[in-house]
Amino acid sequence: MTIKNKLSNSGQAMMVLVMVLAIVILYVSEVFVTTTSNTSQTFESSEEIILQEIAEGSLENAAIRFLRSTSYAGESLNENGISCTIVVSGLGGGVSDLSSSCERTGRSVVVGMTASDTGGSYTFSKIAKR
Question: Is the N or the C terminus of the chain less surrounded, counting Cβ atoms within 10 Å?
Fold first, then answer.
């Protein structure tokens, strides 16, 4: 084997090594980006679930307060960086609309339901996202 062949073989080995390293780097980068993206999406969806649950809880609280006094018109609540606004408005015909809007860090969730006066007792609709 001549010196020229040895240099040629070592050059080929170097090229193969560079190609394998490039593929490994691309694969590791893809795994990192995918993991980071999934983590971000999980955080955002859990944040929305928390807001939804707080909005529904505020709405249930508003329903209880409305039952105690039909003059209850709503309130604003701030707790742990989450601000919720509850609004109760009459729609006429013994029907009232209850709405709860909660917001934190630019995200907001609005839920609501209706209360119908059926001769001295109230019937509430299911809570629905608006």
Answer: N
Q: Measured in whole angstroms, how far is the alpha carbon of residue 100 from the centre of its chain?
A: 16
Query: Which tens digits make up the pLDDT trace of 78-96?
Result: 988 999 999 999 998 899 9
Which one-letter DSSP state was computed for residue 73? -
pLDDT digits (tens, 9 = 90+) for 9-41: 667 777 888 888 888 888 788 877 777 666 655
- Structural domain including 66 reads 3-129
Q: What is the domain count for the chain?
A: 1
Report the C-alpha gap between 59 and 85 in whole angstroms: 10
State the Cα torsion 56-65-117-125 to the nearest 10°. Answer: 10
Burial class (CB in 10 A: 0-12, 13-18, 19+), 111: buried
Q: What is the CATH number of the domain that holds 40?
A: 3.30.1300
Distance (Å, rounded) from C-alpha 94 to C-alpha 117? 5
* CA of residue 113 relative to chain centroid, distance: 21
